[in-house]
Design a protein that fits this description.
Distance between the termini of chain A: 35 Å
Largest sheet of chain A: 7 strands, parallel
Shape of chain A: globular
Strand order of the largest sheet of chain A: 9-7-10-6-11-12-13
Number of strands of chain A: 13
Low-confidence stretches of chain A: 370-379
Number of helices of chain A: 13
Mean pLDDT of chain B: 92
Mean pLDDT of chain A: 90
Largest sheet of chain B: 5 strands, parallel
Low-confidence stretches of chain B: 108-122
Structural class of chain B: alpha/beta
Strand content of chain A: 15-25%
Order of helices and strands of chain A: EHEHEHEHEHHEHEEHEHEEHHEHEH
Number of helices of chain B: 21
Distance between the termini of chain B: 30 Å
Strand content of chain B: 5-15%
Radius of gyration of chain A: 21 Å
Structural class of chain A: alpha/beta
Largest interface: A-B, 46 and 47 residues
Oligomer: heterodimer
Number of strands of chain B: 11
Amino acid sequence: MPAPIRILTAVPICDGHDSAINTINLEFIRHGIEVVYLGYHRSVGDIVRAAIQEDVRAIGISSYNGGHIEFFSDVVKELKKEGADDIKVFGGGGGTITHADAKAMERKGVEKIFFAGTSLIEMADYVHKNYGKPRGKRSRAKTRDIELARRLTEIEDQHARSKRSTSRSAGRVIGFTGPGGAGKTTLIDELVLRFLLQEPKARVAILSHDPSVVGEGALLGDRATMINSQHDRVFMRSMATRGQGGGLSPATEGCLRELTQSNFDYVIIETVGTGQEAMPFAKKGIVDLTVLVMNPDYGARLQLQKIVMLDLADIVVVNKSDLQRARAAHSEIEQRLEQNRRAQQLIDTVAKRHRDPGVDKLFGLISGNGAMPQKRRKK
Amino acid sequence: MSKLGQVIESVEKHHQFVLDQVKRARTDKEFGRDLLGRWNDIKAKIPVSRAPTGLELPRLALPEIDEPGEIARYLFGEGLPGEFPFLNGAYREMYLEPIREIESFEKNGGSKSGKIDKKVPQTEEPTRLFSGLMLAEDTNERFHFLTAHQRTHRLSTAFDGPTLYGIDSDADGVFGKIGEGGVAVDTVEDMVRLFDGFDLGSPNFSASMTISGPAPTIMAMYIAAAKRRFGPKVVSKLRGTIQADIFKEVQAQNETIFPIEASLRFLCDMIEWTTHEMPRWYPVSISGYHIGEAGSTPVQQAAYTLSNGFAYAEMLSQRGIPVDQFGPRLSFFLDCGLDVEYIALSRVSRRIWAIGMRDAFGAGPRAQMFKLHTQTSGRSLVAAEFKNNLTRTAAELMLAYMNATNSCHSNSADEPFTTPSEEWIRLAAHGQAILLEESGIFKHTMNMLSGSPGMKAVERAVEAAILEEFREIERMGGVLAAVENRYQRSQIQNAAHRYEQQIYDNTRPIIALNKYRNGEDDVPEVKLTRTPRSKQQLQVNRLAKFKKKNAEKAKPALAKLAQVVERGDNCFPALLEAAEVCSLGQITGRLQEVVGRFRPMV
């Protein structure tokens, strides 16, 4: 079976009309397409950077607030400038984009504009027909990010083994896991903000996972909420699990190896929302540090006994600690960790809060400035 | 129990109260007699109105009932127009033609004294047209065009994308968006230009500003502009509305720029200030319009709007502002489309609000009134054979006025593909004039179309469904908790998806789109309103000049603002000072450094 088509969708800057794109995203997924959704109010720079890092086949832009001729053609121009003009641009704007506008946009390199009344199936078919064929030989990558992005695609699509040696650069690999809705994505984004502010030259890579829908594509939506991670010093890649259970993708290990050899100071890996028995980072050496992010609402105390990651994690975070249940959760988890007799850390955070002291503390541990002993690297 | 829980309970209790009164009227002879007497008295005081044909009609139509139980059901369950629970209207006469002589409709009826209500209504035109395009001076010109023949000047302002997101026209990547879809406002100087030639302090002037994320800053700029032109005394006389509805932004419209809690705090700071200093201003317009436009069902629209309103009322009460002080300054904004719910959606909303405010918040009569602005549905309009949109809008206008909306905006038929052009705006405005002034439907008699059996059936069904939505929100821990759990967003998105699906599988007919389609390429050739690049550049240049001129003063103003925000005091006075010398983007940026940015929900 050929690898699923990956495309990126977004709504332009100063435009919050996401109703159409939400509907279209769902339809694309239903037709087996993997959609990296960047969200609304997104700049040309954010869109192009994301498209390059995600190495998508095409960018779909849904614009309802005017200025579309400039915006679409700026995206095309910027792709070209970055050496990524094999990524195509299409889109629509209901009735706001006239036929004359569309012609002008097409002259500037936009591949296709859909008009009001186009059926959803027609759009999905268009994507399959135009972006579904295997890629031909690709020209030489102009930048390191493009090269890395393409390598990840090769690994992901063929489960190819990384050809690089097993030696690693000095970066630290941190794995985040935990149940869905615990706030992993928000927490990581807040940590990235601190990396960017406090380490002015640090580069961060993020490998973020979302589940594939059985028999369908996937909505890779983490970028939409990760406002701080859309940055030139952050390389982010969204991966669908493509049928594998346990929170990661069949290609995760290969992609991770590729990233660890690419001069990032930190490599962050986020699993999909996991169940109690999951132990996504069990494989030796895959990460240096494991963070389990919990929601205070895990149910009865007995449930804690069944969560395998509580035994394995280096740091356990009780996020949403502003919830009523949080104090009880903290002491229950604390007791549970004591059984392990290991130097595990327990931290309370409110990741949604700006400048949350709990997140500061976690940042201290992760960046090596806190009390956490640096783990010895496994070869 | 939370406030929303109390609202649900008070609505249920009220219905029981009405049933009890009906029963009592039928069993307690004296009570029944009193009611009948009151009923006859009301009827006797109804003035006559004359149609141009000479036909005489009562100015208020009442159901033909003479049985005390039914009278009780009507008076307590619906209320006369302008009376609790306001089902039939927030005011007594709404859009009736003013009358010169007052005489009773019942020639020989009624009380001996023959006393009838002598209050001649002071009406304002309910038409309020939304506009905003290009630069401030262009919108100003449009404002003058629109109000040329109106007694009262009620302006409604649309802002461009950068302004709605609180950023400046010189921000990265926004060139091309400047002045598109609304007017570009970066500074107090733009605000001065925008309302040039209008007497902002006049009782015949009111300004409406449709903006929420950066609303407190824009409000501060408006006040600063008014002070520049008319001196500091004008502030207490300013009339108008600013949308400022954070909840619906997070639920539907996506124009939030600070985290929810910070946004709500800035909003309450502003409301607290305006409630004291600007008694004629409506500092928040609790809006279902965008919820409806984002694809919600009509019931979701009303349920979320009302529950948002109750949540604001709760927050303001918790600040210690008396409900009778802020309550009358809350106003509402709903969408009106073609679905059957719109037969009675606003009527039901008005009743739920009145009961909830009275019984859950202890509000007096003025704070019980659900004052409503309606806009016809933009989403119901399509580009295919777009002249059909005139008919759609006309039908929606009819529904809006049947629901006794206090004011209304009618959409232009060319809206699906462009900022409305003057030709189609004129037709949209005329649509309202034809309905209200030319036709006799709404100008002679109140309650002209109220209370048909079908309307009552819709009222019951819609109200039950709204209360069920309230219960769901209540189960989730109230409005804020539900918002943070994306409940309303997901519900709206599901409904939007279903709606699109229905169009594509032809179970929801849209004429000329999926039914009776002529098969031709029917995108119309129309003159488009676009902002020329030269104008956009002009705006950028003006902003640069402003920033340069005020560079020295902006720094301390921003520092002070940040300090006040950190301290947790009401930041609106500091915002007023900053608005004099800082641009919108400078203020937004500084505030975001302190409180963070909004994290979108997917």
